Every structure is written in C-alpha cells, then in structure tokens.
C-alpha cells in the first residue's frame, strides 16, 4: 500500500539526498550534515512523501515540499500553495509515483480549502501533462552596467541609498507589497520568507540596499556579486519600486558599478518599458521568459471565491483533467451582478470543453479566452468567458 504523509525528523537526510540528486547531481554524494545540508532556509514549508507501507524500509519513495502561500487573483489574496522540491531517486522513477504524489498533493490542497497550485517547473511539458499551465512571463535583462547610465541624467530626485540587513526587512516588504498589488499571482511573503529566503543565500548572503526619498523607502535591490576581478557579474535576486522615478534610481545605482562588474542581470514585469527608457536599447539584452505554472485545485470551490465584474452571465464547462476525478462532471458557473455560484451538473450539456490548464490561465488573467485559438467553442461562449475573466497582468518573481 502506498501512503502519502508528512516527513518526520528522521527523514531529513533522505529528503536532502533526494533533492540533491534531483537538482544538483554534479555535486556528487555527500555525508549528510544537518547544519550544512539542511539549513533553516530549506526547512520552510511542509515536507511530504509517498511511502510503501508493505516494506520495512521507512525511507520515502518520492518527496515534495509545500509552501503555504497566498496569491493575488482577481483583486484578492487566495490560498495558493507553492509546490516545490519534487524529487525521486533513480530507483523509484518511471513507476507512477510522481503522478501519484501530485494527485495526493492536490487532494490535500482541496481538503485545506486552497484555490490554486503554483510551481516553477524543471520542464514545462512535464507538468503540463498533469494540468499545470504557464501563468506568468517576465523580461530577463542582461547588460553592461554602463547601459543603464541614462538613468542618472533622467533622475529628478537624487534621494539616498543605504544598506540594510535582515532585521530591517519590513522596509523592503512595504515596497514589495505596493508593487505586488499591481500584479496578479504575486505572492504574499511571510516574515520567515523575507528573513530566510530573501536575505539568506546558499553559500554567501546577498547585499541589500534601499532607496529613500523624503524619508520614504521607494525602491530596493537584493543582489549577489559573483566571479573574480576582471570577470565579475552582478545577479539581482529581488527588486521592487513604487514608481518610475524609483526604477530610475535603481538603474542609476546599478550603472554606478561599471568599474567593478562586467555584466549584470535582473528581471522585470513585461509591462515595465525599460527599453523605451534606455538611451541605447540595442545594448540591453532582453529575453521573454516563462514564469511559474498555475493550476486550479477545485473549480467548483475556487470560482465562487473570486471577485467578478458586475456582469450577468452563465456558462456550463466540461473540464478535462488528467489527474483528479472531482472535475469529471460538468460545472455550471452563474454570475449575477458580480455575485457567483458554481455547481457540478452531472449529465448537463456543456457550452464548451476545456482542459484544466487552459482554464487556469484564463481564470488568473494570463490569457483571455479569445486569445486561445485552441479553444473550440461558439463565439458567444468565448465572449462570455472574456467578460467574466478579462486579462490581468501577472507577474511572479518569488522563487520557491
């Protein structure tokens, strides 16, 4: 019998070994040291595993980690766990254990009343087969520091930068929260997340600086400087800003490192027009990259919990779900002046059939139904979905 349950203290070594082999196999096997191989930053979240109860071996077959996040969807925060550290040793692969682990994780989420599941995939097509779908994108920038020197000339308010440490994380959190309100799927970070994940590194801790103007923190940067003299690079782990002036201040700060580093890298939401601001946009390498994937947990419970536009609409949906059975029956969503109900309607004729991943994209605002050429539905049904679920700007830059 296969059992899904929390990992105990006696499973710390197995968890560390599975994760190490799964994500950094080039490091080779190591003798487990709790302080070195399982630091506090790794212990955030809830560890789960599958166990074969018919063997004497108490080691898990496969493992994962759940972060109990809240994410912003349709203007409100909803419980949306982050699924992470899904790992299997080679001897347990290709036996269906990962699929079982994902299904049981969703069952736990459903029992908890969670609305969405988020994850950063090692490969998008792998999780797509189980119902997760890309729900965010971002611009990844790489450039020489001098490319951002335009910001010094355009900055009207010089302000002041100063370094901060983990005890002052609330200064950064205020800026992050203000920026996060503008983006769907942004994650509400806990105190421990700031302390152990933003301000703490694997080997070295990052630098952290805030930009203040008129006594208010309006932007911040958290970054690493890597490499050796003549070939140093700066990697920005985290940044946020309240307005364009604060963005320019951050760019000017980065530009001032032109005597120290050869290259810097950072990410921004796709609606931030940095290339339009830059004097030499052709020197600013910009790559559109996918963010995390998202998945509805239980549509019947999630959809009525969302805020809808003040419209009257009704749609019956057949959800194609490869992983769980509670989406087997069609569902009927009724919205009257922004108030919604959703019920399972066994035997009803659906207005459209849609896979759970695509529906998840539409619900969170990453795609509109009318954008999806793969959606086989009458025009009036597509128009109804567009009215219920207009596009929203999604952005997630919290790694987990």
Automatic annotation (TrEMBL):
UniProt signal peptide: none
Keyword NAD: no
Keyword vocabulary terms for this entry: Acyltransferase, Transferase
An annotated Gene Ontology molecular function: acyltransferase activity
Domain of life: Archaea
InterPro entries xref list: Acetyltransf_17, Acetyltransferase_Eis, Acyl_CoA_acyltransferase, Eis_dom, GNAT_dom, SCP2_sterol-bd_dom_sf
Stretches assigned to the N-acetyltransferase domain: 2-153
The enzyme's E.C. designation: 2.3.1.-
PROSITE patterns: GNAT
PANTHER family: N-ACETYLTRANSFERASE EIS
Name of the protein this chain belongs to: Enhanced intracellular survival protein Eis
Organism: Halovivax cerinus
């Amino acid at each position: 019998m296969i059992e899904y349950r929390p990992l105990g203290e006696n499973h710390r070594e197995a968890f560390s070994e599975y994760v190490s082999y799964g994500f950094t196999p080039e490091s080779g096997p190591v003798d487990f040291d709790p302080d070195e191989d399982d630091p506090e930053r790794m212990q955030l979240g809830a560890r789960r595993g599958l166990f074969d109860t018919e063997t004497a071996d108490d080691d898990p077959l496969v493992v994962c980690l759940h972060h109990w996040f809240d994410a912003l969807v349709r203007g409100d925060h909803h419980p949306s766990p982050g699924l992470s550290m899904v790992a299997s040793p080679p001897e347990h692969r290709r036996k269906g254990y990962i699929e079982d682990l994902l299904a049981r994780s969703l069952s736990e989420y459903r029992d908890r009343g969670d609305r969405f599941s988020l994850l950063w995939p090692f490969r998008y097509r792998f999780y797509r087969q189980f119902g997760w779908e890309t729900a965010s994108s971002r611009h990844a920038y790489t450039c020489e520091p001098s490319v951002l020197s335009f910001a010094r000339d355009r900055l009207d308010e010089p302000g002041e930068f100063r370094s901060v440490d983990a005890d002052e994380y609330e200064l950064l959190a205020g800026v992050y929260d203000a920026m996060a309100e503008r983006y769907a799927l942004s994650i509400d970070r806990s105190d421990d997340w700031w302390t152990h994940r933003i301000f703490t590194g694997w080997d070295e801790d990052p630098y952290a600086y805030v930009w203040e103007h008129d006594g208010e923190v309006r932007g911040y940067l958290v970054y690493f400087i890597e490499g050796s003299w003549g070939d140093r690079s700066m990697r920005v782990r985290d940044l946020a800003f309240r307005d364009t002036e604060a963005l320019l201040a951050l760019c000017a700060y980065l530009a001032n490192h032109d005597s120290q580093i050869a290259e810097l890298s950072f990410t921004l939401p796709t609606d931030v027009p940095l290339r339009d601001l830059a004097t030499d946009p052709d020197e600013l390498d910009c790559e559109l990259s996918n963010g995390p994937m998202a998945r509805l947990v239980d549509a019947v419970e999630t959809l009525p919990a969302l805020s809808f536009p003040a419209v009257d609409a009704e749609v019956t949906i057949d959800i194609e779900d490869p992983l769980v059975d509670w989406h087997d029956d069609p569902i009927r969503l009724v919205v009257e002046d922004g108030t919604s109900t959703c019920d399972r309607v066994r035997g009803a004729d659906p207005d459209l059939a849609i896979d759970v991943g695509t529906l998840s994209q539409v619900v969170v605002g990453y795609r509109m139904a009318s954008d999806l050429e793969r959606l086989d539905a009458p025009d009036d049904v597509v128009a109804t979905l567009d009215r219920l679920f207009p596009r929203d700007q999604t952005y997630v830059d919290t790694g987990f």
